[in-house]
Amino acid sequence: MELGDQRASSNVEDRRGMSIGGGLGIGGVVIAIIAAFLGLDPGQVLNTVQQVSPPQETGTPKEGVPTDEMGQFVSKVLGTTEVEWKKIFEASGQRYRNPTLVMFSGATRADQCGQAQSAMGPFYCPSDQKIYLDTSFFRDLERRFKGCDAGSPSCQFAQAYVIAHEVGHHVQNQLGILPKVQAQQRGVSKTEANRLQVKVELQADCFAGVWANHSNEEWKGFIQPGDVEAAMRTAAAIGDDRLQKQAQGYAIPDSFTHGSSEQRQRWFETGLKQGTVASCNTFAAAQL
User: Fold this and answer.
1) Quick count: other Cβ atoms within 10 Å of Cβ 1?
2) For residue 127, what are the CA distances in angstroms to 109, 187, 230?
3) 175 — phi, psi (to 5°)?
4) What is the pLDDT of residue 224?
């Protein structure tokens, strides 16, 4: 992946190094991890827990473009998503509003979505339109999930795919897709709610592919040999079927919330090849 001298986004809130205490104990963290594994919204679960004793965060977040290597990488990737989604929205007569990306370490208050924990992985909060990212997830992606070869240049593209996926949720929010799905989920069974969530996640994978398609057209050499393979490997590594088999030895499709490895790979590839929002309509797809 070649970022070169692309513009770094200033829509970054750097909370790394800030501490959080009070409110949520280790029991709350365990509850959140279990909730995520079972397909529940960890943000909503934590928000309920924290209504009893909200966490207190100390320190002052740094706003603007980070100066360290990882911060620069994250802000540049975010910057490419801002450029491409602005153009895509404008082409259809719409206005794209940039999200804010919050970088943190360990844990942080997720404003309208409870508390963010590194164990939960990156996530998007529709209520505050912020993406929460503990960059230690990238290390887990390499070493724990084996999503790419540790230290390889292609790992950067795999990491960028993760960011682009979360931006994809912001795109869904901007298009009114997330509010609609959330309303539908309130009136159906848990199994059906999970199926709707899988469609949401696979569409975000597809939107990540759309971003990659347009970025590669925008900047020569943006995608390097081996990059797409690394992203596909990452998509497979965090598929529900693979994660469940690693955790318990078998998979339960009705409990999937993000899609299988094969589905995640296929929808990312669909967005990458076709490069259109229309190609990512997982809700109308005959086959996920």
Assistant:
1) 25
2) 13, 20, 32
3) -85, -5
4) 93
CA-based diameter of the chain, in Å?
52
Taking the C-alpha atoms of residue 160 and residue 1, their distance in angstroms, rounded to an integer, is 9
Identify whether the C-beta of residue 211 lies closer than 8 Å to the C-beta of residue 164: yes
Quick check: 286 pLDDT over 50? yes
DSSP-H helix ranges across 219-276: 227-237, 240-248, 261-274
Q: Can you list the positions of beta strands (E) in 110-262? A: 115-117, 123-125, 130-134
Whole-angstrom CA distances from 147 to 31, 191, 251 are: 26, 28, 19
Angle, to 10 degrees, between the axis of helix 154-174 and the axis of helix 227-237?
A: 60
* Average pLDDT score over the chain: 86
pLDDT digits (tens, 9 = 90+) for 66-102: 989 999 999 999 999 999 999 999 999 999 999 999 9
In this structure, what are the phi and psi dihedrals at residue 24, rounded to the nearest 5 degrees?
A: -90, 120
Give the pLDDT confidence of 151-186 residue by residue, as tens digits.
788 899 999 999 999 999 999 999 999 999 999 999
Helix (H, G, I), strand (E, B) or coil at 191: helix
- Give the count of beta carbons closer than 10 Å to the beta carbon of residue 70: 13
Structure tokens at 141: 């992606």
* Distance from C-alpha of 44 to C-alpha of 104, rounded to nearest angstrom: 19
Q: What does 24-91 look like in DSSP terms, one character per residue?
A: --HHHHHHHHHHHHTT--HHHHHHHHHTTS--EEES--EES---SHHHHHHHHHHHHHHHHHHHHHHH
Specify the pLDDT at position 225. Answer: 92
